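At this stage, I put together a protein sequence along with its fold in C-alpha cell form, as given directly below:
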Amino acid sequence: MTPPDATTAAQRVSEQGRPEGTQRSVGELIAEVTSDLSALLNQELELAKTELRLEAAKVGKTAGAFGGAAAAGYFAVLFASWTLLFALHAAFHATPGPHSW
C-alpha cells in the first residue's frame, strides 16, 4: 500500500502547469534564456554603477589630499622666500641707511 500523499510520475505537475517529464518548446526555452540574460545584465549594470561610485569617491578623496598638499607646498615656498628675503636684507643692510625698512 502506498502512502496517501504519494503520487505517480504522471500525476506530478510542474510549476508551469504541465505534467513533469514533458519537454518545453523552443520558444519557451528562448524566452527563459532571454529573461535570465536580461536579469543578469541588469545585475551586472548595477554592480558596475556601485563600483564606479566607490572608485569616484576614492578619486575625490585623493584629489582633495593632493590639492591640500599643493596649497601647503605653495605657502611653504612663499613663506620660505619671505624668510630668505628678510635674512638677506638683514645680512646686507646691517647699517641703517637711506633705504632701510
The chain has a mean pLDDT of 84. The chain has one helix and no strands. The radius of gyration is 39 Å. The longest helix spans residues 26-92.
